[in-house]
Amino acid sequence: MMLDVVALYRFVPLERLEALRENLSCLCRDNGLRGTILIASEGINGTVAGTAAGTSALIEALEAICAISKGEVKHSKASHWPFSRMKVRIRPELITMRAPEADPSRQAGTYVAPADWNALIEARDVLVLDTRNRYETKVGTFEGAVDPRIDSFTEFKTFVEAELDPAVHRKVAMFCTGGIRCEKASSYMLSKGFETVYHLKGGILKYLEDIPPSRSRWNGECYVFDGRVAVGHGLKPGTWIACHACGEPLGETETRSAAYEPGVSCSHCIEELTDERARDLRARHRRLLQTPSGSQADLSTPRQIADS
């Protein structure tokens, strides 16, 4: 069965979050959906998978609740369940930044459509900035992009303050997976005096969906926060896998390492692996291999969507 995967977000004031959480949980359960939805007073963010009828029911409900079509709604496909269960959670922020001055409802950067992105990033006076974490940028990025080499989005503020200067970097073109991080990142940079901040509308995922490989300036694949681990052009499943112990994306070289044991360890976490944890992870891996669902999501530990 081919599954519909929907990634969505919108910054919009929401109230009565507990009641909304219950309503969305029931709706997703009744329609057989799996994934994660985060709600906060500033809006909604989520990725869910299910049948086309099930995801359509969710989008229809969200249109009535928060006019979701005014935000971002992106569809892709998966041949296996990319999530093992459904979660609807209340959070202080949709994407954690801890910067009150970053308010996308008040100001944000200028959207750039995928069709116009190549021309923008090829301009000599534009700084191209990847706003994602280092475990994502290792999987792929745009040609010539600056990698902030951060481990979490909250570190983006420190990078900007230490490495960028509004007087020097007058034009900045930023990008992220689906667009939500750039909403806050661009708002933050504008609040700090940066003159012109662009961001890729729909994020990398929309670019890979719309731009053919022959015209693409993207190198590698795009890390995604579900059991697919990464996708390529046309949003086709990629070649990377995840370490089931720590969630780190692994390429071919890393899976050939002596430190790699499926379900147990990789070169990024083996030094912290105790004998007791190794026994527990091996037992967990054996149980999951015997699970009838046997989906990719059941065997992986993708990072939290809150960090997407």
TrEMBL record:
InterPro entries according to UniProt: Rhodanese-like_dom, Rhodanese-like_dom_sf, TrhO, TRHO_N
Region of interest (Disordered), residue spans: 287-308
CDD domains: RHOD_YceA
Residues in Rhodanese domain copies: 122-216
EC number(s) given by UniProt: 1.14.-.-
Record-linked HAMAP family: TrhO
Family classification: Belongs to the TrhO family.
Protein name: tRNA uridine(34) hydroxylase
